[in-house]
Fold this protein.
Amino acid sequence: MAAAGGRPKPSVRDWPPLPREASPLVSVILPARNEARNIERCLRSLLASTYPDFEVIVVDDRSTDDTAVIAEGIAASDARVRVVRGDELPEGWFGKPWACWQGNRVARGSVLLFTDADTRHGPALLGHAVAGLRARSADLLTVLPHQECLTFWERVVQPQFLLAGVLLIGFRFGSPERLNRSTDPYSAVANGQFILVTRESYEATGGHQKVHDQVVEDMAIAREYAKAGRRRVIAAALDDMTTRMYASLGEIYEGWTKNVFVALRQSLPWPEAAYLLIGLMLLAPLFWLAPPLFAALGLAGGVPAMATFGLLGTAASFACWPAVSRYTRLPLGFALLYPLGVMVVASILVRATWRGSRKIEWKGRVYEKRV
């Protein structure tokens, strides 16, 4: 994200909340499958919103844990929350689009917010976002939250993917505002952790029913909006929203394996070029790993020139990672572990390429040859 005075732009805080009388009813649709670990924290944060008129619809996507029990307990004490027990997954659908579509069918709002159970919303977030949707005359507004990293592997690996995303936007568009103005469907971006849309545009573009067979449904939704000529806005919400995507190395592997390859296929006019693009992406880990490797070989083999070259390159690499640590709010010491993170990312890219779209596993479901 471009920054002015150290603050990413555009930011949801650029748009003051609308007055109560001008605030439309918002239906917050929260698909949840096996989210007992997260669901209460997410719901409590949503219910603490200062936005004047909203409802929360929790769609329990046939969870096998206590997700529905926890959500129903909260609903019993707050009339703004409704829990929908999801129907069996139809043939040809992925789980999240199906849950979102079921939530839409019972929603009452003229504005819909699709969010995830692993998120935590600041009190003013919804008000700022609705105001931004109105101020930009947009049909879809999505935000980039702060990524919460608590365990060792989260802190080592997640910044690698966050940096890759920031660099991709920067190299391809120069600034988020240029991305916001783009009409190219293959450059359309949305973050499924927070997608705010007008009901009119959602119904006109087909909503989640149109992308029912897409595992990376957020990018597919954005692409459909772009195809229809609908205006989209992406903004930062680093101080107003947090999310914890994965809590273990196993979840990191499964989550990014699921997302990386399919997301690349969806972002290219020629889907099979995803193999080539991932191959090029693998050059980045080699770039980051080459300096410390040269330094180690030079020192071990008594080759001063190689050691000097490697140490200088390693120092240059380390110089950029403190900035990443500040952005992700992680202890600076984790910058020293970037070679380990890079190796994990490289292995995930290889795994994603090998698996391709033949087999996708997530939340206890296995999808074979679906995309």
Notes: The mean pLDDT is 85. The first strand starts at residue 2 and ends at 4. The chain has two domains: 2-247, 273-368.
